[in-house]
Phosphoserine aminotransferase (Bifidobacterium thermophilum), 380 residues
Amino acid sequence: MSNTVTIPESMLPRDGRFGSGPSKIRPEQVQALDAGATKLLGTSHRQAPVKQLVGSIREGLAQFFTVPDGYEVVLGNGGATAFWDMACASLITRKAAFGVYGSFSEKFAIEADKTPFLEKPEIFRSEPGTYRLPELTEYVDTYCWAHNETSTGVATPVKRIPGSVEQGAITLVDATSGAGVLPVDISQTDAYYFSPQKAFGSDGGLWIAILSPAAIERAYALEESTKLEGARRWVPAFLSLKSAIDNSRKDQTLNTPSVANLIMLENQIRWLNDNGGLAWAHARCAKSASLLYQWAERSEYAHPFVEDESARSTATVTIDLDDAISAKQVIQALRDNGIVDTGGYRKLGRNQLRIGVFPSVEPSDIVALTKCVDYIVEHL
């Protein structure tokens, strides 16, 4: 079969970016960079203009997520990957339990397993395309899972494990691809953390965590414990959550951030809040996701990968193609026509499309995408 398929221009989406991260950045965010070129770019992150920018980000996120009293919006450099290590150093006291149901929910568990001063974690595993939350386990002080498994398109509930509060445990939820799309009650978490390159339409390299008083207290206590004679725990400066909290309270980061990233993030947060906040963003993404799932269910050659409708993500949609249709060829033909980042997660190894339907994506472009896929399949 030939890979050369030219889609009529009238069929193409207005914007062909459908990545699951990095995701589409709106033109207005790029314009904000230009507007801030002389005032913000190339200036000290410890001076008032950039600190005001960080303050606006923290206040905007507190509004967007309806953050409970006592919770704090904290940020730092390194992305959610760095936050996994930070949590091992600064939040898990002794032993953690993990729900593992895909590549990203497993990566945090692997980091905890390799941390020399922590006990082996308890793993509650299910097959890709499904999910399993951790269960109440003796001696566990931290329960961890992902709100949205980016690799498979599975969304999970965010609710404390029954009995975990009485146990003195805290709850950490990786929200990297779910934050800004999926509804959440922040009070059901102690650290709801994410990177901004998904729903918040920015670049990677930054992590944001909404922390409860319990998480803040633990971070301070664990760092203090490193001063005790014979202490095995090591909290390097870059992975010190206490330091990140202290700096965030001053509207800054420990080390120099990407100011351009902060500008785009602040613009996206204001855009989301001005349009109606999380409720608006969720409804918009749910509409786009529904268009894809309904298309796949009507199709003769495409099928939603996640069978349980209640677990289907409205942030990242995964669609299996019949073996007679090469997803690789479809993805390449889309790219040849300017429609990019529609490939399935590489390690999952399925004949699959994966579509990011974050708030910046227009639902009308999702409709156009489905028609383009049909056109390619017809002409391959």
User: Anything to note?
Assistant: The CA atoms of residues 9 and 264 lie 30 Å apart. The chain has a mean pLDDT of 96. The chain has two domains: 17-23+277-376, 25-271. The domain at 17-23+277-376 is CATH 3.90.1150.10 (Aspartate Aminotransferase, domain 1).
